[in-house]
């Protein structure tokens, strides 16, 4: 949802998304499929740390088939969308949403994928350029605030037509 909200799309058919419907783990296999389907296009999988852990084994697919997929993990040490629902709709009664993640850069290295971890905003621009300029797959892990919400979102029990664009709409 971060990509939907903030990335400027310059070409049609350039954003594959689950639509914020809570399909954690969608980004990496979708990005691999997108790259295999359009090898001439730059493909960046943007996901949270929880979503990354849902399909982390797909790093093996990248190692074996070598699609040049860039991986951007926004790590807030939470199952982000679930935590956001618990904050906004359940009075911050957090239940099993804080998580511990592996060192994603070390894990990527085990699959022969280069990577870097950053935690300062001033490192972001240069690190993104480094990732995009790298000739093969690359994983960039970015530490973000624990309770930084992402909008738009589709609240539980609602349809896409009832999408929420900001906290003020709740």
List the helices and strands and how they pair.
Layout: H1 2-6, H2 27-37, E1 43-48, H3 49-54, H4 58-65, E2 69-75, H5 80-89, H6 104-110, E3 114-118, H7 124-133, E4 138-143
Parallel strand pairs: 1-2, 2-4, 3-4
Short description:
The protein is of the alpha/beta class and 170 residues long. The protein is built from seven helices and four strands.
Report the total helices: 7
Low-confidence blocks of residues: none
Q: How would you spell out the order of helices and strands?
A: HHEHHEHHEHE
Helix proportion of residues, in percent? 25-40%
- Range of strand content: 5-15%
Taking all Cα atoms into account, the compactness measure Rg is 16 Å
Notes on the structure:
This protein is of the alpha/beta class. Helix content is 34%, strand content 14%. It has seven helices and four strands; from the N terminus they run H-H-E-H-H-E-H-H-E-H-E. Strands 1-2-4-3 form a four-stranded parallel sheet, sandwiched between helices. The two termini are 18 Å apart.
List keywords for this structure.
alpha/beta, 4-stranded parallel beta sheet, 4 strands, 34% helix, 170 residues, globular
